[in-house]
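S.,

Sequence below, as promised.
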Amino acid sequence: MPVLSAQQLRTLLQHHLLRVDTPADIARQVADNLVEASLKGHDSHGVTLLPRYIQAIEAGDLNPRGELRLLRDEGALLSFHGQRGFGQVLGQKAMDAGIQRARDYGVAIIGIAEAHHLGRIGAWAEQVAEAGLVSLHFANVSAPSAVLPFGGQQPRLGTNPLCVGIPRAQGDPVILDFATSAIAGNKARIAWNEGRPLPEGCAVDHLGNPTTDAGSLMQEPRGSLLAFGGHKGAGLSLICTLLGAALTGGQTESHRFPPRPGIINNMLSIIIDPLRLGAGEQYQQEVEAQLAWIHSSGGEAQIPGEPEARCYARRSVEGISVDAVSWQQFIDLDPAGPL
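The prediction came back faster than expected:
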């Protein structure tokens, strides 16, 4: 597996995006977002997605010039349509608007429908946290169902992520960001590319038998992912669809989508100014006291966001490895690429 620096990967990704008529500023922003995800250890949402993005553009499922279109403005409530543009661009613009409205009203509720892949949702929680605001995000995936409902035999849910961001007066924010499936769908793709088994308890094959074979999720006849935590994760996945898609004007998994090259997301974001609710100035004191209490547990107690920070520091120095299958996909896109 080749190991490349973050800057080499930014150059590579921008090169391929420019080749398919992506505006330079958008290509730079998308590349930065994908490299950032890989730096933080989320290869499933990082640079290896680029070949699929190119395929989606060529198939007309991703509009590289798609812009965020305002549908409704109700003060603290904003509703947007993404026109299948790059989620990396649309997500940032929507959060910018939400941050301003939360400062105006103390709270903002932002709906985004029909955006192409919004990437690592934690990036939007981080953006909001940098502004000193709390955020909650419920997203769904308008794609063929990949996750079994609790007690079900056929997939009816998506990997639909849930994310919460809590700012801190000092130090990195608390960022809780996870798929409601036992593992994200793209983590299965990475495992398949690298020839690794899936963790136990994450998937079943097409007959409903437990499996650790990543190929059972990537090849026909396809199996299904399981929700994390049984009925709890399955329930959260449903809530992410009802709030992230049905409430925002997006499409739930009930549309029975055919396989598609693009990844279409919908998302509901709730942004709160903590200084204008309840505890006021005492809020940050309570946050720090609770985090210190967690760390005092001993052992390797950690809070959400800390593994990403450690991985970022390590990969910034050591570089980012790209699995052999994904690297070959890059070569196939342009054998005479920039590296």
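The first strand starts at residue 3 and ends at 4.

Coffee later?
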